[in-house]
Every structure is written in C-alpha cells, then in structure tokens.
C-alpha cells in the first residue's frame, strides 16, 4: 500500500516480521525492522524521498562508494518514553556530524528538513519495533554513499541517503578488555579520523582481530606520531578517573567527536565533577595505576552507551581496573544518561526529541 505524507512516499510492508523477533534475546545488528527511508540526490537536486519495505538495493559495481570509499554513516537510538512514545536523543547533532563527515569526503550536504522528516516518519511507522527500556532500544543507522557510475577518482555528483533500524540489546554485555597497540594506527592529523567514514572501520578490522586473538575485546588507539597519547577505542570514546578528576582525550581532529561523549562531559561538570579534556598518555595511565590513583575507566558511544573497561593491555602487562561496583562516577553517569533518554527524569537540555 502506497501513501504520500508531507512530500514523502510511503509503501508499507504486506506483513510485519515483528512476530518472529524475540525482544528478550535480540542479537545486536542482525534483526532489521520492517521499513527503510531512502532519499536520492540526482542531477543537482533531491528527489521526493520514500519509505519502503526493508530489503535489497540494486546498484552497479562501478558506483563511487564501492570503488573510492565515499561512504559515511551515523549511529542513533530510539527509546520508549514513560507513556510508550518513541524518543530520539539529540538527532540534530547526528545530522550535523553526518554533514561534517560528508564535507570531509566531498559529499553533498543533507538538508535538515529532509533528514528529520524522514527519520521521524520511519520511527513512527516502525514504533512497535522499539524494545521496552528493560529489553533494549531501537538502533538507527543513517547511511550516505556516492552512486556515480564512473571509474575515475573524483567526487561523485549523485548520492543516496538511507535510514534503517534494528532492535538491539547491549552492544557489550560485560566490561571490556582493551589492547593498546603501537603497531597500528587508526588516524593521523589531516586524515579522516574525525569523520564517521566507512573506511575508518575497515582499516581497524585486522588490529581488532589480532587483539581478540590475545583475549581482548577491542583496540585502544594511540596517536599516529608518537604512539603514546590515547585517542579512542574503535567503538567508543574513552574516559579515565585519576584520583577525583575525569580525564578525557581532547579532540585533535583524529578522533570522533562523540555525541554521547559531549553529553557525559556536560552531565559530569553539572554534577560538580572535575573534568579535564587534554592529551593523556598511556604511560600516565600506567603510572596512575601503579600508584593506586586510577579509579575508573569507561567508554561512551551510541551503541556502547556507557561501557566499563575491565583492563587495558600494553607492552605485555595489564592495567586492571577496580570492580564495577566500586565505580561511583561511571555508574552514576550511566544511570543518569539512561534516565534522561527515557524521560524518567526531566530533560533540562532539550536533548530528547519525541516522535
């Protein structure tokens, strides 16, 4: 069945797949909701966007995204509010970052009305796919890529934006072990480290595999020049508590400006905690650990939310963090952020957008 809604063509699926999903046992990123949003930029203008049943998209093998890597994405979530209404968290910030990533990859900017109207219509249509707060959330993936059918290194003139969703439980079910590596680097100054570009993640796959072979969950990236200063984990920004101070690697153009990162810093400062955004070396963290001054380490991200770090491996030895039960600050901010996203407490910042 097809309908037109505010310059948006909607074709609904014949039969929902929802009854086949066990919301109490959701594999992360493998069960996709009924519909997806599609908008095409063709011949210098945006065509009328559409929502269609989720499924395969047909493209030529010559498209720019596949050959030259013009592809970016975002990660977002929808939660259920106290009255069962869908709630988005800071979606305008996701669009801002998507367009900043696109500018770095020489891609056409996405209009705010097109993005927000399509996003809200999609979430409203598939609102039954949002798990309860106890079960999880609805992960939202905006994906933007170049579709010029041309073999030649140049910026594409045609693009596709799609948004699709999937119900998810926790990305990390337990505290994580990270391995700091000096053999590989994620990004260098002047590169695409601050962009949410698909290629950044492809380059991290081998180091990630090698870390897992050594018993770690993921890599803790160090800077490309001195292999000393902590940048981020591939799936989240990182925070450290040294004594009573929260230390966060500063944004230098080589790490992602996380929306959750910014939210956590805001909440911590408002609660009276001392927060320092600065360069932090792996050797400083080692020294703080040896001196008994390292109280906590955690990551933040849309998928990861707030994830405790259990240990950090570096140069053959492990930095072991205290038990989660002893971590006052990260436990507090994890609960506070969750309560704001689901409106269990007042949203004093205007971060939550009802659908």
Report on this model:
The chain is of the alpha+beta class. The protein is built from eight helices and 20 strands. It has helices at 64-68, 91-104, 112-125, 198-202, 205-213, 259-270, 282-290, 328-341, and strands at 2-4, 9-11, 35-42, 45-46, 50-53, 71-73, 76-80, 86-89, 137-146, 159-168, 176-180, 218-222, 230-233, 237-242, 245-249, 274-278, 294-301, 305-314, 317-320, 352-354. The strands form two sheets. Strands 1, 2, 3, 4, 5, 6, 7, 8, 9, 10 and 20 form an eleven-stranded mixed beta sheet that branches. Strands 11, 12, 13, 14, 15, 16, 17, 18 and 19 form a nine-stranded mixed beta sheet that branches. Strand 18 (305-314) and strand 19 form a beta hairpin. Helix 6 (259-270) crosses helix 8 (328-341). The longest helix is centred in the N-terminal third of the chain and has 14 residues, at 91-104. It is globular, with a radius of gyration of 21 Å. The model has no long low-confidence stretch (mean pLDDT 95).
Brief summary of the model shown:
The chain is built from eight helices and 20 strands. It has 355 residues and is of the alpha+beta class. The two termini are 23 Å apart.
Any chance you could write out the topology, listing elements then pairs?
Layout: E1 2-4, E2 9-11, E3 35-42, E4 45-46, E5 50-53, H1 64-68, E6 71-73, E7 76-80, E8 86-89, H2 91-104, H3 112-125, E9 137-146, E10 159-168, E11 176-180, H4 198-202, H5 205-213, E12 218-222, E13 230-233, E14 237-242, E15 245-249, H6 259-270, E16 274-278, H7 282-290, E17 294-301, E18 305-314, E19 317-320, H8 328-341, E20 352-354
Parallel strand pairs: 2-5, 11-12, 11-18, 15-16
Antiparallel strand pairs: 1-2, 3-4, 3-5, 3-10, 6-9, 7-8, 7-9, 8-20, 9-10, 12-13, 14-15, 14-17, 17-18, 18-19
Helix pairs in contact: 6-8
């Amino acid at each position: 069945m097809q309908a037109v809604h505010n310059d948006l063509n909607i074709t609904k699926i014949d039969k929902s797949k929802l009854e086949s999903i066990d919301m109490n046992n959701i594999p992360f990123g493998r069960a996709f909701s009924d519909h997806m949003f599609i908008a095409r930029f063709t011949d210098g203008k945006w065509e009328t966007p559409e929502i269609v049943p989720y499924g395969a998209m047909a493209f030529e093998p010559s498209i720019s995204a596949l050959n030259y890597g013009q592809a970016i994405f975002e990660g977002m979530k929808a939660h259920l509010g106290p009255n069962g209404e869908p709630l988005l968290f800071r979606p305008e910030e996701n669009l801002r970052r998507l367009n900043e990533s696109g500018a770095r990859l020489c891609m056409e900017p996405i209009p705010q009305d097109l993005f927000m109207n399509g996003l809200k219509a999609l979430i409203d249509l598939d609102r039954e796919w949002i798990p309860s707060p106890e079960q999880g959330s609805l992960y939202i993936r905006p994906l933007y890529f170049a579709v010029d059918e041309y073999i030649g290194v140049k910026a594409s003139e045609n693009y596709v934006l799609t948004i699709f969703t999937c119900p998810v439980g926790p990305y990390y079910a337990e505290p994580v072990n990270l391995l700091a590596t000096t053999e590989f680097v994620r990004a260098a100054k002047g590169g695409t480290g601050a962009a949410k570009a698909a290629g950044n993640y492809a380059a991290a796959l081998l180091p990630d595999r090698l870390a897992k072979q050594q018993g770690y969950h993921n890599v803790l990236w160090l800077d490309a020049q001195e292999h000393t200063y902590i940048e981020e984990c591939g799936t989240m920004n990182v925070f450290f508590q040294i004594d009573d101070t929260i230390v966060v690697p500063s944004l230098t153009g080589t790490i992602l400006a996380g929306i959750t990162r910014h939210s956590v810093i805001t909440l911590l400062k408002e609660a009276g905690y001392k927060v320092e955004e600065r360069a932090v070396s792996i050797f400083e963290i080692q020294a703080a650990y040896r001196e008994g001054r390292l109280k906590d380490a955690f990551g933040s991200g849309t998928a990861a939310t707030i994830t405790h770090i259990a240990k950090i491996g570096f140069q053959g030895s492990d930095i072991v963090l205290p038990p989660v039960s002893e971590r006052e600050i990260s436990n507090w901010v994890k609960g506070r952020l969750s309560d704001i996203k689901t409106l269990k407490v007042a949203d004093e910042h205007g971060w939550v957008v009802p659908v």
